[in-house]
Amino acid sequence: MLEQHPKDPAERHLIIILTFILLLFSLSSCSDTQTRVGLVLYNESDPFVYNYARSIEEHAQGVFSLSRADSGNSQILQNEQIAQMLDQKLDLLIINPVDRLSVYSIIKRQREMDIPVIFFNREPLLKDLDLWEDAYYVGAKAEQSGRLQAELIMELFGNDPRQLNRFDKNGDNVIQAIILKGEQGHQDAEIRTSEVLRIFHDQGYAMEAVIEVANWESTQAYEKMEQIAKTFGTDFEVIISNNDAMAIGAIKRMKEAGFFTDTNGNGRIDPLDELWVPIVGIDGISEAVELIEYGYLYGTVLNDSNSQAQAVVELSEYLLGLRKEQEMTYRLLDDTYVWIDYKVFTLD
Amino acid sequence: MKRLIHDLTIRQSILAAFLGIVLSILSLTGLIFYTSFSQQTDLMIEDHSREINKQIVYNYENYINSVIETANYIQYITSGFDVRDSYDYLQDKYLINTEIKKDVVSVYLFDTEGRRVLGNEVSENSAHTITAQRWFTAALQERLIFHFSAEDRQSLLPKNEEHVISVSRYAEYIEGGQQKRGVLLIELNSNTINELAEKTNLGPTGHIIIIDDDDSLINTLGSYELDQLDMSMAIAVESYYGGFMTEIDHKTMYMNITPLSNTRWRIVNVIDVDHTAQVKRQMLLTLLMIFVVSIFVAAVVSVAMSRRISNPLNTLKESMRSIEQGSFHSKVVVTGQREVVHLSETFNSMIDTIQSLMERILNEQREKRKTELRALQNQINPHFLYNTLDSIIWLAENDRSEDVITTVSALARFFRISISGGENFITLEDEIQHVRNYLTIQKVRYQKKFEYRFEVDREVVGLKVMKLILQPLVENAINYGIGDEQETITLRCFRREDSLILEVENTGYGITDERIREIYRIINGTDKTTSVGLRNVYLRLKLYYGAAADLIISSSLDVSTTMQVVIPVREPVQAIENQEEVT
């Protein structure tokens, strides 16, 4: 039939239309020959993660195309998103896992599909990363943040454990400290807390510490400070918080107790002249930076998301063959890790 | 193909068109409907399964979180007090958990040597094996996470053979003012884990499998057969995580593999969606049935419809064919579509017209024949009248008044019969009388040179015959048979079978066969000789009696010559007579 009537107009139109549709399909499916990378975030409403992702996007601009997904703190959703990206045959995945313990199943699947994966922000177990040579982690060491916090406070107290300076208000040569701990059992909370205590101990400082779990939250920190004030009054010499949010909660409570009043009216709080207690946080969120500038917060340890994002993008480029290993700003360790240092942030 | 389309009857083309349309519409809608239905069903199954999965995972994670919270609380309490100073207080905190929570079998704190620091009693058998157990070594190795392990082991409690799940974690505690390291252990029974699954509907053979990070089985729940479990396990191990439709033991299942947060476990929900998937198959079957029934109905309807349309046409066609074969008297009576009825009416009026035209032609032909016949009959008289009058003159000149009287009276009778009131047909008796008069006249004229004789069967004298047939024959016999010798003319009338035979025989020389052929040629009109007598008879016979009538001439030399007129004795004689009366 077809061969007999090749010039049947209706038939020819049909063929043209079909060809056109087919062409469109094939075009849309392979129009993008550029390198494509998937970025999966555990939760975009976490401002740190949000900024992190923004930095990654900025660094990746013009290098590779990035498709972003927000898992909304659901591992099930994250798995679906990753599966979808694998179906699209992306060249590389950058994943901020929701649950670091279930990363092994993600790595196994990546290994099967032979698509490299970079994890960030939440560190998978070493034995999971060892499952496959093309699984990487970019992050900061939680221990370092604790150590820097401790060092910042030691410096404030004069760097001499035998002779503390005037910030040892009661002059007993013992630092009375409140530690606001993140979620009990949380990796970072445990490490940061134990690391601060360990450093003081190792450096020969005497410390009396009250540890309160405030679950990373500003309001919970405020409430815990309320209880502490009832039990211990305000006779403590430093507040060490596992993160900035809890430090901000503590500042709020201390202001209500009469601390942090601008008595000389110079627009900022002066540690030497006024009722003041040093409070240190970790993360370096913008609100904390602002509080440091006004003198409320003594300092924070910056979890340098911008540098980490740069490292993530550079590692991606390296894995995609767009950059040599020597050209990377941050070293790749054990062919698995890129560690970014925390940075101390104070007014000075 | 094209020729095939052209060759189809109305019925076939209507059937083909109808079925073609119905078939294509049905297949198209069926296809679209089924694909969208199937997609919807799949989507529904997927949504449903995911929802169930989320619920199950949510329940399990909630449970795990509650266990972890308990563990965190115990750990927090432990880290805040000196084990030596506050032993009773801490011990109380440990044991209260086993009493309040039905799923918590026991809570322990061990030091790094595996010695019990706080918590429940340890059976003597187990005490020395603790440091070798996986929950213990793992907790010391990976310090910052909880270790959920379900190695097949019994509780550490004395006299308790319950199989337990261990939740262990590295923990620090203070003993005698010294920071010490240890392992916290919570033993759980599987009651709650089982209960959590019971609340969800996984379908008839749906089941839940919990597997470890090294793909070893931790727990199975739900109704299943061992084969199915093995298959599910195999698929789950291969697939790592995610949700997808799969086939297990010839049943459609939806499998969801989800890691459980804070553990190294994956929960595999295998939901039996076979029933829903069957709906799809049933739909396909139903569609197929609708398809078949519709095709059948469409075929029946289209056959009926095409019959309704084509039947009147066929009737019309049959009528036309019969008319084609010459039957003009049948009228076409067709019922059905207005167009066809109208067509048949037109056709009927056409037939009427043709019929009246034909009748007119027939009448014209008949009139023409009659005129011809009259002319032929009229040809006879003047010639004979001239001769007879001539001989009467001659008789009168010779004063033979007796003969004049005989002749004139015979002539009078002769003409009376000849005219016979305008009738063309007269009885044979009259015809014979007519000949007799003629012979009387001729005998006078020819000086009695011949004799004549009549041999007439009585039974035939009543028959009507065309008039003036015998006279030309007798005339012929006289003209050609009379010579020097006295001759005899014999006139015979008799019936032979269906024919009336009128025979005129005259003795004499006879005639040759060649002469006979010549005569035949003359009467057939192939010879242009102006001998009108016999030809006239022959033509009239044929005109009126048709093929059955004949004129036969035979002769035996020196003996006699015979002419026979054969007339069929049948209705045609009457029929034509009647018709003539009608017209």
Q: What Rg of chain A do the Cα atoms give?
A: 27 Å
User: What is the spatial order of strands in the main beta sheet of chain A?
Assistant: 2-1-3-4-5-11
Beta content of chain A = 15-25%
What is the CATH architecture annotation of the largest domain in chain A?
3-Layer(aba) Sandwich
Largest sheet of chain B: 5 strands, antiparallel
Low-confidence stretches of chain A: 1-7
The H/E string of chain A reads HEHEHEHEHEHEHEHEHEHEHEE
Specify the CATH class of one domain in chain B. Alpha Beta
Helix content of chain A: 40-55%
Main β-sheet of chain A: number of strands, strand sense, barrel status?
A: 6 strands, parallel
Characteristic key phrases:
heterodimer, A: 348 residues, alpha/beta, Rossmann fold, disordered N terminus, B: 583 residues, alpha+beta, Beta-Lactamase, Heat Shock Protein 90, five-stranded antiparallel beta sheet, 15 helices, 17 strands, 20% strand, disordered C terminus
Describe what this molecule looks like in 3D.
The complex is a heterodimer of chains A (348) and B (583). Chain A has 348 residues and is α/β, with parallel strands linked by helices. Chain A contains eleven helices and twelve strands. In chain A, β9, α10 and β10 form a beta-alpha-beta unit. Chain A is elongated. Chain A folds into two domains: 142 residues, Response regulator (Rossmann fold), CATH 3.40.50; 161 residues, Rossmann fold. Chain B is an alpha+beta fold and 583 residues long. Among the domains of chain B are: 113 residues, PAS domain (Beta-Lactamase, 2-Layer Sandwich), CATH 3.30.450; 224 residues, Histidine kinase-like ATPase, C-terminal domain (Heat Shock Protein 90, 2-Layer Sandwich). Chain B has 15 helices and 17 strands. In chain B, the strands form four sheets. Chain B has a five-stranded antiparallel sheet, sandwiched between helices. In chain B, strands 7-6-10-9-8 form a five-stranded antiparallel sheet, with helices on both faces. Chain B has a five-stranded mixed sheet with strand order 12-14-15-17-16. In chain B, α9 runs antiparallel to α10. Chain B is rod-shaped, with a radius of gyration of 67 Å. The C terminus of chain B is likely disordered. The interface between A and B is medium-sized, with 26 and 32 residues.
